[in-house]
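Hi again,

Forgot to attach this to my earlier email, sorry! This is the prediction with nicotinamide-adenine-dinucleotide bound. I've pasted everything inline since the attachment limit keeps bouncing my files.
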Amino acid sequence: MGDRLRGKTALITGAGMGIGREAAQLFAAEGARVVVADIDAKAAKETVSRIEAAGGEALAVVGDVAMESDVERMVAEGVARLGGLHVLYNNAGVLWKDRDRSVLETDPAWWDRVMAINLKSVFWVTKHGIPHLQRAGGGSIVLMGSVSALVGFTRAQDAYTCAKGALISLTKSLAIQFAKDRIRCNIIHPGIVDTPLQAPYLTDQLRKEFETGIPIGRIARPREIANVALFLASEESSYMTGAELVVDGGFTAG
Ligand SMILES: NC(=O)c1ccc[n+]([C@@H]2O[C@H](COP(=O)([O-])OP(=O)(O)OC[C@H]3O[C@@H](n4cnc5c(N)ncnc54)[C@H](O)[C@@H]3O)[C@@H](O)[C@H]2O)c1
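Structure tokens for the complex follow:
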């Protein structure tokens, strides 16, 4: 166990699986009390069990991050049970390649749902979470972007791309607004990561194609993104705000 987040409480959305679960376990191992927020109750509870088995402290809160009332309740439950909030890691997101395609093909209802989960959720989490960071005397907000926001792909996912792009602007706005309160806000842009989000699409052939285009030669492990989230959540990044960290094995450097 380390102590890079000792004394802090971190709320992580989408912490039932993938990068969020990895981050929840890592943050807890570094001393944080973790509010594991997810729409999937079983997955959230499993993350909490793993944290508790390793000697950490966590609480599962269940709801849809796209719904303001759910987010308000999840934040309130976390604060009431774990005491205050210092870190808001807005990790939850969906990638529905079959329904979210080019603007020419996407059903408006799916566009709205992707935007609600990937973008509006951050509105709700920051709206209800920031007052607690202010009360705590400061904190760190971490957003999840994507390399999709930085480069175009021939296989379009336009709603996902737009949501991730808008998060870059929101990162800078939050950074400027809340620096006076000692609240920092930064965004991570992962390349492709081996998680349940990608699993339905990652055929062996597609994995090979992706890996050919990545200078490091492989897709990322969830821990490699969670490590960067830990850095941004902790005081080690105390002079960083409004920044974008690209974690893509060199994919966008070429
Ligand atoms: N995996 C990648 O290749 C990749 C690449 C770039 C960016 N990202 C971003 O990283 C973040 C995490 O991705 P991941 O790959 O770990 O995803 P994942 O699908 O493996 O896990 C996402 C978690 O979010 C939860 N979730 C989904 N919708 C929710 C909702 N409406 N309310 C509450 N919880 C909800 C799911 O239940 C799940 O536990 C996302 O924002 C994603 O866009 C992922």
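The pocket of nicotinamide-adenine-dinucleotide is lined by residues 13-14, 16-20, 38-40, 43, 64-66, 91-95, 117, 144, 146, 190, 192-193, 195-198 (CB under 6 Å). The first strand starts at residue 9 and ends at 13.

That should be everything now.

G.
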